[in-house]
């Protein structure tokens, strides 16, 4: 699999969900090359675990569809790699973001961006990834299910809020993460994660399905991208995508 040109960029004034639009297109028509779909307004944006994300021009909302053929192994850990590369791209530009497992992007402990990774199969039985991002440019009129941050919080006098600029930065980060996992596996992500992980060595509340919340200390991730926490019973490996965590206050 080669992640390269051509890339088609599309922009619509309003839609329900850019992820849903691309998933439907893939199922009906397949996908021959990478497509980036941006919406100026999104009315039914979806996040992980049923959360929502909506906003207007103060939020950058887009999805990237990438054909991956039958290489389903790339799905293992790709969510972590995308979050890590988004943080890396921001840090290279002076924004001290962190990633909260599995891929929420935080700034000063609040949510700066949300990422949703999905996949679909086309009529030719070839698969494509669809990666949706909601990224807060300015505080006004941006919304998520919990406290949020924006680039306007950074306070850099030269900060540029141009959406097209940040779209290019984030798309490049996404494509690089997919190339990296395809070529090198999850090893580089695990090494990077140790430097950019939110709440590392701090006590958090862990929420698992059908279990009472419990306290644990975040340790890191293992070679497969599973979350490692330390509780009174020792090190525990968390695998399920239905797990969530919050910093204990």
UniProtKB/TrEMBL annotation:
<dbReference type="GO" id="GO:0004077">
    <property type="term" value="F:biotin--[biotin carboxyl-carrier protein] ligase activity"/>
</dbReference>
<dbReference type="InterPro" id="IPR004408">
    <property type="entry name" value="Biotin_CoA_COase_ligase"/>
</dbReference>
<dbReference type="InterPro" id="IPR003142">
    <property type="entry name" value="BPL_C"/>
</dbReference>
<dbReference type="InterPro" id="IPR008988">
    <property type="entry name" value="Transcriptional_repressor_C"/>
</dbReference>
<keyword id="KW-0092">Biotin</keyword>
<dbReference type="Pfam" id="PF02237">
    <property type="entry name" value="BPL_C"/>
</dbReference>
<keyword id="KW-0547">Nucleotide-binding</keyword>
<keyword id="KW-0436">Ligase</keyword>
<dbReference type="InterPro" id="IPR004143">
    <property type="entry name" value="BPL_LPL_catalytic"/>
</dbReference>
<feature type="domain" description="BPL/LPL catalytic">
    <location>
        <begin position="1"/>
        <end position="182"/>
    </location>
</feature>
<dbReference type="Pfam" id="PF03099">
    <property type="entry name" value="BPL_LplA_LipB"/>
</dbReference>
<dbReference type="InterPro" id="IPR045864">
    <property type="entry name" value="aa-tRNA-synth_II/BPL/LPL"/>
</dbReference>
<keyword id="KW-0067">ATP-binding</keyword>
<protein>
    <recommendedName>
        <fullName>biotin--[biotin carboxyl-carrier protein] ligase</fullName>
        <ecNumber>6.3.4.15</ecNumber>
    </recommendedName>
</protein>
């Amino acid at each position: 699999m080669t992640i390269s040109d051509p890339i088609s960029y599309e922009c619509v004034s309003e839609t329900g969900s850019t992820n849903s639009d691309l998933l439907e297109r893939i199922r009906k028509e397949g996908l021959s090359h990478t497509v980036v779909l941006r919406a100026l307004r999104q009315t039914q944006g979806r996040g992980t675990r049923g959360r929502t994300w909506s906003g207007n021009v103060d939020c950058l909302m887009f999805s990237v569809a990438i054909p991956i053929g039958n290489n389903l192994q790339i799905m293992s850990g790709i969510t972590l790699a995308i979050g890590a590369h988004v943080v890396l791209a921001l840090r290279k530009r002076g924004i001290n973001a962190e990633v909260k497992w599995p891929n929420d992007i935080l700034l000063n402990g609040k949510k700066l961006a949300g990422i949703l990774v999905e996949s679909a199969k086309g009529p030719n039985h070839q698969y494509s990834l669809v990666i949706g991002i909601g990224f807060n440019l300015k505080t006004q009129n941006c919304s998520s299910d919990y406290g949020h941050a924006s680039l306007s919080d950074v306070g850099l006098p030269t900060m540029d809020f141009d959406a097209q600029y940040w779209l290019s930065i984030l798309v490049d980060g996404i494509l690089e993460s997919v190339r990296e996992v395809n070529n090198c596996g999850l090893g580089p992500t695990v090494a990077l994660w140790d430097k950019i992980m939110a709440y590392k060595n701090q006590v958090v509340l862990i929420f698992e399905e059908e279990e009472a919340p419990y306290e644990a200390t975040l340790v890191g991730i293992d070679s497969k991208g599973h979350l490692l926490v330390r509780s009174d019973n020792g090190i525990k490996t968390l695998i399920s995508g239905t797990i969530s965590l919050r910093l204990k206050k």
